[in-house]
Design goal:
The protein is of the alpha/beta class. It contains nine helices and 23 strands. Helix content is 22%, strand content 32%. Helix 3 crosses helix 7.
Length: 332
């Protein structure tokens, strides 16, 4: 069995951390995020992996290489000149994926969900595809997936927070919504359902019309940890939650001068923090120098020159400002 890691996206909500790399290639506690995904797949005995590329493709290749550092063998599928979407990517990589059941995993997640259990559900279902779901207890802003008897019914709106009063209302129990984890188990017959070789989305352009026409897409409701790192605040919160020791992560070649004070922060490589500077809940990207006495809290910091080199700032990016040689993005 093979797997495909989706790694072609632009990562606009993680800008400016994604100026010089795509989202799956950002460092996460000492290794590239997509490296965690490759190792996760390998732990389930799947070692032949296809990775699709589009935005900043070399950053993913540099992060993964041939896959040997992560226990896998990687083939790359380049999407040029246009990105092809989650379904179009499958068509483009069809020869690499072969003619057997395969697994798809989003390249921006960290999880310990049992893929083997999902594959077993898929085989019992007889469906063309199985979506791996998880209960959204925090009611984060993910699309609600509705199911009946182990199959997908429909895709609803985004989940909404529930107030304390509603949670205390025991007479009207509020069901926990299900959300999609970005993991699917798929049959080669999926290729017959994808509308052409251009851009298309797996859910919008394949699953939804297929279900409406009477087709079956199975649901596997999984247990386990699952984290999705699509925004800067989520990246920071999840990094801090997963740190095994201490409350600061240091990349390579970081320098602390004098009485610098750091708490709940993530430093990438080649960062210098000057005497008397303080950082709290701050992400500092490669090569940034924090001057003596500077204080930052709830922020992401990159080199201002990197931002100046951009033709435009993505619409979905958080707004920032230039201070000295750095570009500061408040996370409040």
């Amino acid at each position: 069995m093979k797997a495909m890691i989706l790694a072609a996206g632009f990562g606009t909500r993680l800008f400016p951390l994604t100026i010089d790399r795509t989202k799956p290639a950002i460092p996460f506690l000492g290794k590239p995020l997509v490296g965690y995904v490759a190792e996760y797949i390998a732990r389930h005995g799947i070692t032949d992996i296809v990775v699709n590329l589009h935005h900043q493709p070399d950053s993913v290749i540099e992060a993964l290489g041939d896959g040997s550092n992560f226990g896998v063998k990687i083939a790359y599928s380049r999407e040029v000149p246009e990105i092809l979407g989650t379904a179009g990517a499958l068509v483009h990589a069809r020869e690499l994926l072969g003619d057997e059941t395969f697994v798809i995993v989003n390249g921006k997640i960290v999880t310990d969900i049992d893929i083997a259990a999902a594959i077993e559900t898929h085989r019992r279902s007889g469906a063309v595809a199985t979506m791996v779901l998880k209960e959204n207890h925090k009611r984060e802003k993910f699309t609600i997936v509705e199911t009946t008897d182990g199959f997908i019914d429909r895709f609803g709106p985004h989940a909404q927070p529930v107030g304390e009063a509603e949670l205390r209302d025991t007479e009207h129990e509020i069901p926990v919504p299900l959300m999609f984890t970005g993991i699917h188990v798929v049959e080669p017959a999926i290729f017959d359902l994808i509308p052409g070789a251009g851009f298309s989305d797996t859910v919008t352009d394949v699953y939804i019309p297929y279900i409406k026409n009477g087709g079956n897409v199975a649901a596997h409701v999984a247990q386990g940890d699952w984290f999705e790192l699509s925004t800067i605040p989520r990246y920071l919160d999840i990094s801090l939650a997963m740190m095994k020791s201490g409350d600061v992560h240091f990349g390579r070649n970081c320098i602390l001068a004098g009485a610098a004070s750091l708490k709940d922060s993530i430093l990438w490589d080649d960062v210098t923090v000057g005497d008397g500077a303080s950082l709290y809940r701050t992400i500092v990207a490669d090569g940034v120098q924090i001057e003596a006495g500077e204080h930052f809290e709830n922020a992401a910091i990159v080199s201002a020159d990197m931002v100046r080199s951009c033709s435009e700032i993505p619409e979905k990016a958080l707004h920032g400002y230039v201070q000295g040689e750095n570009y500061i993005v408040p996370l409040n």
